[in-house]
């Protein structure tokens, strides 16, 4: 056998022998958890909670890094380009940042299916359509009437792909022309809502939970097909009179494609252990979410399905790709 061929064969044997040991020792240093959105948002709060729990389990720091922008694309691209060694992870609203992004952007800097290795499903939720707590509007029917009386049918605010689809589908179903205002952070969105610059907002339930609880916001409906455990008295959009309306986003854990399977299995086992606790169930409820179980294969199947499903929503809502 030529020397070069011997060297390649020897290198392969060494790598095969070394890889399981690396996976077995993982993690040997800090893990970086990437967040698609700014500090204070629902996903930021959720990632920090899971990061703290993961750190307790593995005995290594979990550093949460916010990389907001482009409706989550900046963080997603960063993770897709990161070294596939298990030290860069992302808990993301994948139905939005991966599935929906295919249709809301003309060109993505990553492939939602090929550039990520799904680890497991975390939770499901429904976006909440809210108005200022001082608003005289108490339900979707009253909001629709109020908007139709305004020049241009008023304005709404959001900061996520799911929020855009949820609001635009509402507009289509009710014949509204309401103007869309995009926000980078939740605080600016809420300030404009409280100040009357916008008429309603479509928010993730984690960010909306406390303002709704304290009466600063009034929840009119949730986008999901069923009511949320955290808002049992808030009707679905279908219950509120909007037909054929079910937008149920979901959250999952991903790592860069090429991450060794033993490391993926470890991450899945740890997060499954976290999700099985009463603390997690209580916390998810406070996040406005319900637990969702499923491994990487189930997440891949759901992602592929929702790329098509949410693509139809985007077309139906007449959303122009950016």
Helix/strand layout:
Blueprint: H1 3-25, E1 31-35, H2 42-58, E2 62-66, H3 73-80, E3 88-92, H4 94-104, E4 116-125, E5 128-132, H5 140-148, E6 155-158, H6 161-174, E7 179-182, H7 186-195, E8 200-203, H8 205-213, E9 217-222, E10 250-256, H9 261-275, H10 278-286, E11 289-291, H11 296-316
Please explain how this structure is put together.
This protein has a 6-stranded mixed beta sheet with strand order 2-1-3-10-4-11, with helices on both faces. Helix 2 (42-58) links the parallel strand 1 (31-35) and strand 2 (62-66). The longest helix has 23 residues, at 3-25. It has 322 residues and is an alpha/beta fold. The chain has helices at residues 3-25, 42-58, 73-80, 94-104, 140-148, 161-174, 186-195, 205-213, 261-275, 278-286, 296-316, and strands at residues 31-35, 62-66, 88-92, 116-125, 128-132, 155-158, 179-182, 200-203, 217-222, 250-256, 289-291. Helix content is 45%, strand content 18%. The protein folds into 2 domains: 3-125 and 250-316, Bordetella uptake gene, domain 1 (D-Maltodextrin-Binding Protein, domain 2, 3-Layer(aba) Sandwich), CATH 3.40.190; 128-222, D-Maltodextrin-Binding Protein, domain 2 (3-Layer(aba) Sandwich). The protein is built from 11 helices and 11 strands.
């Amino acid at each position: 056998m030529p020397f070069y061929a011997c060297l390649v064969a020897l290198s392969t044997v060494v790598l095969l022998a070394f890889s399981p040991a690396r996976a077995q020792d993982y993690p040997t240093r800090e893990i970086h958890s990437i967040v698609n959105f700014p500090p204070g948002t629902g996903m930021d709060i959720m990632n920090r909670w899971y990061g703290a729990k993961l750190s307790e389990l593995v005995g290594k720091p979990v550093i949460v890094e916010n990389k907001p922008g482009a409706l989550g694309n900046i963080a997603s691209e960063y993770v897709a380009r990161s070294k596939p060694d298990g030290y860069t992870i992302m808990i993301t609203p994948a139905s939005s940042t991966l599935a929906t992004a295919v249709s809301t952007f003309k060109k993505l800097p990553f492939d939602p299916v090929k550039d990520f290795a799904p680890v497991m499903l975390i939770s499901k939720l429904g976006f909440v359509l809210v108005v200022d707590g001082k608003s005289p509007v108490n339900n979707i029917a009253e909001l629709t009437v109020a908007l139709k009386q305004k020049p241009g049918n008023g304005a709404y605010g959001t900061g996520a792909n799911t929020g855009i689809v949820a609001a635009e589908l509402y507009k289509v179903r009710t014949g509204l022309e309401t103007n869309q205002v995009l926000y980078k952070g939740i605080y600016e969105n809420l300030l404009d809502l409280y100040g009357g610059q916008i008429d309603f907002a479509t928010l993730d339930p984690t960010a909306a939970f406390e303002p709704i609880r304290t009466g600063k916001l009034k929840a009119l409906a949730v986008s999901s097909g069923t009511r949320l455990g955290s808002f049992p008295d808030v009707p679905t959009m279908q219950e509120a009179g909007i037909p054929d309306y079910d937008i149920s986003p979901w959250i999952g854990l991903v790592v860069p494609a090429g991450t060794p399977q033993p490391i993926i299995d470890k991450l899945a086992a740890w997060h499954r252990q976290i999700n099985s606790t009463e603390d997690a169930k209580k916390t998810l409820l406070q996040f406005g979410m319900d637990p969702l179980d499923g491994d990487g294969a189930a997440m891949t199947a759901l992602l592929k399905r929702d790329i098509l499903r949410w693509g139809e929503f985007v077309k139906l809502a007449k959303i122009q790709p950016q």
